[in-house]
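Marked as duplicate of an earlier ticket. Keeping the data here for the record.
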Amino acid sequence: MTTGTIFDIKRFAIHDGPGIRTTVFLKGCPLSCWWCHNPESRSAAPEVLYREHLCVRCGACVDACPEGARSIDGDVVSRDAGRCVVCGTCAEVCPSGALDKVGRETTVDGLMKEIERDTSFFDQSGGGVTFSGGEPLVQSGFLLELLSRCRDHDIHTVVDTCGFAKPQVVKAVADRTDLFLFDLKFMDPDRHLELTGVSNGLILENLKSLVGMGKDVRIRIPVIPSVTNADGNFDAIGRFVSSLADPPHVTLLPHHSTAMGKYSRFDIDKRLPDDVGDPTSEELQEIASTLAGYGLDVSY
């Protein structure tokens, strides 16, 4: 029985593809983007995240843990990683919300039952299911089976991807996917490596391959002032996308600084400087104009 790990399901989504959609967020990502809005998704395994600033040191988690993995000594609450099985019992009993289980394992059958609850909305709106993350291609076996099952049930499918995967995985997923939302972040390979942890050579080749296969692709570009909107990046993107055989539609995704609050809530190290704000409407219009100058269809 094929299983996978998800960390959220968002119903009635309207920005993740056509119509009303159910967006399933799969855990695990090979990138570590400075501006990631879902930093809790990076690890492919379920996690119990500890928010020390909320902890009241009551000891409820210590008493409840069936494995004896938690202890408290004065103001210090500790977890024995060797004993912890990430069952989430500690998070269930935590009265202050200092502990939060992120991620749950599910079967293809179990997840399809959740998806199929929304088919009436899909039928009425021309919607379907979107697989996002994290990076859904990390769990390729799980994703492929889900896509096949959706096709069997005539459910429209979207895969939201950063494109960093083996070409054979991308090809297999492409054969079962109706639409790709493909992230394009930075064209300079060294800067891409610095900002995301990986170079972009494989990503660009996979994008070329999908377009060459005639797949329905929409490119999505994060707009982060002084980060992605710097060093002529959008001119470089315009030149690259316009050179493709059938240039896809481009959507600009403005950075939202409020999402950076997750880093402090989950005690995750944040690399994006605190003074990076959200792009203004004027900045977005200017970028859209730049890309349109290369003959591209752009929205934001």
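See parent ticket for discussion. The mean pLDDT is 94.
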